[in-house]
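fwd from M.: "can u put these together and see what the complex looks like"

so here's what she sent:
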Amino acid sequence: MALLTVEGITKRFGGLLAVHDLSLSVEPGQIVALIGPNGAGKTTAFNVISGFYKPDAGRIVFDGRDISGLRPDEICKLGLTRTFQVVRPFRGISVLDNVMVGAYARTGDGRAARATAQEALSFLGMLPMADHLASDLPIGGRKRLEITRALATGPRLLLLDETMAGLRPAETDEVIRMVRKISERGIGILLVEHVMRVVMSLAERVVVLHHGEKLAEGTPESIVQDPRVIEAYLGEAHVTG
Amino acid sequence: MSAQSQVLGVKKPARSWLRGLLLDWERTQLVITFTLMLLVAVIGLLFPSPYVLGILILATLYAYIGITWNIVAGFAGQLLIAHVIFLGIGAYTTIVLNDNFGISPWLGIPAAGLVAGLLGLLVAAVTLRYGLKADYFALFTIALLVSLRTLFLKWQFVGGALGLWLQLGNTGWGNMIFATKGPYLIIALALLAFGVIVQYRIYLSKMGKYLLAIREDEAAAAALGVNTSLYKTLAVVTGAAMAGIGGGFYVMYVAFVEPPQVFDLGFNVEIVMASPIIGGLGSLAGPILGAFVNKPLAELIRGMLAAQTSGTTLIIYGSFLVLSIMFMPRGLAGVVHSLYLRLARRWAGDGTGGS
Amino acid sequence: MTLSILLQLIINGLFTGGIYALVAVGLTLIYGVMLILNFAHGEFLMLGMYIAFWAFTLFHIDPYLAALLAAVLVFGLGALIQRGLIQHVLSSHPLNQIVLLLGVSTLITGLVQFFWSADPRSIHVAYETSVVVLLGLRFSIPKMVAFFGALFIAIGLYVFLRATKTGKAIRAVSQSRQAALLMGINVNWIYVLTFGIGTAVTAVGGVLLTPTYTIIPTVGQQFAVIAFVVVVLGTMGNFIGAFLGGLIIGVVEAFAGYFLGGDVKIIASMLVFILILLFRPAGLLGRKPG
């Protein structure tokens, strides 16, 4: 059984059809990439899946359970956690406290939360910065914090929203390594990405979105050669390699 | 004790004890707070004049009320401006139970907490149900303040415009009525200790972290599993109930209440907002530092302006607020924190007992 | 309730509402441009009243002429407060902004009370009880003058905002600070100007009230609360909404005063306030929420 099954979701904003009849699935431990030109509806799809928007049609099934219409925090507690495209650290508190907020999704006990947080920080190489204020971190650090925080919630599926945007190549490699490590733990990953290099090196399957609809789906290699996909991206500046 | 300290002798053990006590900033604030409270108690013992005791009692109460607002506005970042309504409701509850029903304040004060907590629950529920955020939330609380003042002005059962005088029975601990001010200070300090501990426990708990997360970024908090509605409600109800208890003690001490006295924005500025703002909103020691500095200072300034007293309280508190926001946005606690960090760096840097 | 009482209440309500409208216009202008709620707004009205009082008492200047003096003085004070204090918290947490303005409000009230005492003052002009009777309805002269004065100033301000270069700059900033910056508008100067105008207009509202209102240091507070009601009712930042809202609240209050009594009538405005906040926070002219 698939970990996540998105069945024909549609989302409208007034007259604008942001997402139309989108279906996709993610198996446990799989990495799936959601790509498409700007404005294709990727973040909207994320917002619907993670409970920030209610779908106008269709449903989302996570681990056999219909989660359509649940609150974001309820969905997170069920094991589906998302990050944000523009990172949102809790700036006024420490890195450790940031991650502990995530860890508390699984427990009410301070000691257990602290242990989980420290484990997540160490797993993703952020332990030395634990006592720093989140606002003191550079952008690369904040992106890693965003992922570490999400990891501490103990997800079985992680939704990563354009994690690589604005990173230098060396930092991108770092984050690719992090994502692979997370995936090796058996955590499913659905990522929205513009950086094709990331998509090619991480994704097992790619779903292409265009004008809110699924344009194509397949392996990274087949997608890159798909003429419909190429046409959709023509005139659209995208980052390669 | 490390091998090094055994070699170096006496000096190190004292340092280690102090280091253990000031292990982190949270604990340090707790130490500072209780030290200040001890200082207050000692001053009260050494100078038991009604004037001095009066200042100490009010400073202690202001610190406690400041804590109750700190939880809602400092930790959770909610713009609950007219927090004084909970104090007012609490004061009225206690005095009405005492005067009209002969119920001892020892029951009347917890009852005040209950009633104020219920009002807090109402406020939270309504504002959450109708999605009142930020400015709209602030305005809503002010509308409540004005409404309550008007309603209480007309409600004869609670004295209307004439207010209520505390019915004085026999003095003694049973009635919480004392001929001297000393016992009031004891109760005030006990109340403050209660508030400090509750605040500390909340800060270190899951609730505390969640409130801070909500303050920093509500949507991100929700994405991480925080039930923001629940925790915002908890913060408001906790702050409201605690403020109600403070109001109950307040009315037992000043022995009188009327609507324009408690349901007043100027009073709100003085007793709710000034201490945490000056001391540092969102910090643990802030409300206490702020109160123990601003109340005596205000009295001192008022004393210097001897003859002309009309409006001086307003001038003093207005200036305090403006100066704090402009020049000391993290408050006194922020200043002490910077000193603490420097000290901690020195201690972490040195291994030889000095630098 | 006879027809004449009904009409009388409406007229009285409109006349008072004109002042509410003027005060609210100042408040909504500040909010629209700077996105802060001026919690010290009532104090500028109060200062206007005191300026009129002292001008009348010391120099026998008719209150309505003192309006210009009040406008200039309060504009200066408002500009100073904006440049010296508010400017520095415009990008801070809203709590800081609110606390700062509450502090300013408290400070101003305290200073007035300190220097001029809390004793109630009033101005007695020859025409203060003059009425014009028309069709059996009584039109109080000072209240009528106040209404038309407020209307005149509001219209003038509206024209200023629509037709002059500076006015358009102000409107540009209220629509998009970024775009205005890119167009070379000195946004900080616009903030100073806006706050000065908003407070000056309010002060003039206070001046217009003086023939019929008792002056005490805290007189501004009740008007401030009503101004907030009006601003929200008329949609925050909306000029015309604020003016119409002021008139509506004036009439609501007149009826409330008649049925409930003068000291309780504010509860009617509070009820309107709460209902609007709950069910239509975007105001009468705004989009429906959600």
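replying to her w this: Chain A has a mean pLDDT of 90.
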